[in-house]
Amino acid sequence: MNDNYHIFSDGRVERHNDTVRLVTDDDEKKYLPIENAEALFLHGQIDFNTRVISFLDDHGVAMHVFGWNDYYSGSIMPERGQTSGQTVVEQVRAYDDEAHRGKIAREIVDGSIHNMRANVTYYDNRDYDLDSTLDALDRRREEIQSAESVEEAMGVEASARRAYYGIFDQILPEGFVFGGRKYNPPNNKVNSLISFGNSLVYANIVSAIRATALDPTISYLHEPGERRYSLALDLADLFKPVLTDRVVFRLVNRGQLSDDDFDSEMNACLLTETGRETFSKEFEQTLDRTIEHPRLNRKVSYQYLLRVEAYKLKKHLLTGEPYESFERWW
Amino acid sequence: MSGHADERTGETDPVNLLLESARDEAVESPFHVTGVMMQYYEVCKRELWFESRDVEIDRENPNVVRGTHVDETAYDEKRRNLSIDGRIAPDLLDDGRVVEVKPSSTLVEPARLQLLYYLWYLDRVVGVEKEGVLAHPTERKRESVELTDENEQQVEDAIRGIYDVVRSDTPPPAKEKPFCESCAYHDFCWSC
Ligand code: SF4
């Protein structure tokens, strides 16, 4: 259930009877079992027509398009009838109320720092001495409690992330020099992996938000009206350490990526098709991992945690019950 | 008939409000109660609040919405569905009695209340007196249900209770119930 299908080859996706099939440029035909799919991820050059779009729409399947440079380029979201005026009204109300918006923004930053810290602790318990980073993150976490404006909260988030990224060069093996976050375009291998991973997190959250009646453009930490779905940017911050960063560490430390998986041109470094394939595979496996959820009383996948987060926020907005952002508990 | 207005000083009794808006479409603040709302009132008032706010349920949730499903499949006796003003939709048997299916032994009270509400509504709004049958499809048992002074009171109290839940800005807090597991709002409620 809720599988993502990644298409890396070039070709076309088309509706064929009651299925969707991929016809690659070398005329290979592949059927996509979309009944249980959450989304199709198009990484190659893919043609499609309105017939396949309405078919996907009927089945509630999203299509996320991944371009070059900045990776994520857009989504075609199913209509699905999930609209609720009430939800959007409450969403806007909370946005418009400075105190309320600030509270949600702080809660998101608080959870993000917790989740970064969980990664640092993991490596601190292994062979690394990362106490100073842990201290720095703890201080940011204290700071966020008293952040007065959303701008300030953003600032705390940024400096926490800088401290956190500081450990990457210690943890990652030689040949994977990071030197701080650069995107648009990513300037080295590590940055291209983070960019690609974060855009996968983002696209999955876009799908998760779409499953609720939340409006993806009304956000609290990020400013609405940015080019992208800013609510997805808000929630993505919480999950980047758990999803993107762990996948990066895992693949690189196991030596599963080589220089051939990257394309360096000018001052950009981007993943090749096979590089993306390797990354997506590991990423999907991570999304499929399950964890016992203490309140839902059952095992849920990491992917479902994204959905749960959208529910939590929506519930907070509709009922006034407190929103507690996702903090890795295992 | 329902002399409860005095308990709510200055406010119209929800029972009267419901009757007025059922009889006259032009009533300014209409108050509707559907049969399903009666069930939710018995089963879970939080669910009732969600339902009244159009909090949409997750369509992919594998849990089937309680009751309605059983209702349609487990009982194949001939009956007609009668939709009245688009507000209530009782099922009638050939002999004219109103039938309500009890989906399971835990949900007999909600079904009974819904049936009583139909009988009450038909009596008060439409002006016809009907008898009711509570049917148990698997056990092949049926139980006659009639509107009495006592259960009339129960229906009207439920209408007032529903009014309070629906008008409230916040839902009653979640409380773990045996129904939660099969509730369409389960993950929404307990996502925390
Ligand atoms: S999950 Fe339980 S508490 Fe929540 S609405 Fe359903 S029955 Fe009520």
Helix content of chain B: 25-40%
Q: Radius of gyration of chain B over alpha carbons?
A: 17 Å
> Biggest β-sheet of chain B, characterized?
5 strands, mixed
Sketch the topology of chain A as an H/E string, one letter per element: EEEEEEHEEHHHHHHHHEEHEEH
Give the low-pLDDT segments of chain A.
none
* Average pLDDT score of chain B: 83
Anisotropy-based shape of chain B: globular
Strand order of the largest sheet of chain A: 1-5-7-8
DSSP summary: helix tally of chain A? 11
Which pair of chains has the greatest number of interface residues, and how are they split between the two chains? A-B, 26 and 18 residues
Mean pLDDT reading of chain A = 93
Overview of this protein structure:
The complex is a heterodimer of chains A (330) and B (192). Helices cover 49% and strands 17% of the residues of chain A. Chain A is of the alpha/beta class. In chain A, a hairpin with a 2-residue loop joins strand 9 (262-265) and strand 10. In chain A, helix 3 (98-124) runs parallel beside helix 9 and helix 9 (241-253) crosses helix 10. The model of chain A has no long low-confidence stretch (mean pLDDT 93). Chain B has helices at residues 14-23, 35-43, 45-52, 68-73, 108-126, 149-167, 186-190, and strands spanning 80-81, 91-92, 98-101, 132-136, 141-145. Helices cover 40% and strands 9% of the residues of chain B. With 192 residues, chain B is α+β, with helices and mostly antiparallel strands. The relative contact order of chain B is 0.18. Chain B has a five-stranded mixed beta sheet with strand order 1-2-3-4-5, covered by helices on one side. Residues 61-72 of chain B have low confidence and may be disordered. The interface between A and B is medium-sized, with 26 and 18 residues. The structure holds iron/sulfur cluster. Iron/sulfur cluster is lined by residues 44, 46-47, 174-175, 177, 179-180, 183, 185-186, 189 of chain B. Iron/sulfur cluster binds at residues 44, 46-47, 174-175, 177, 179-180, 183, 185-186, 189 of chain B.
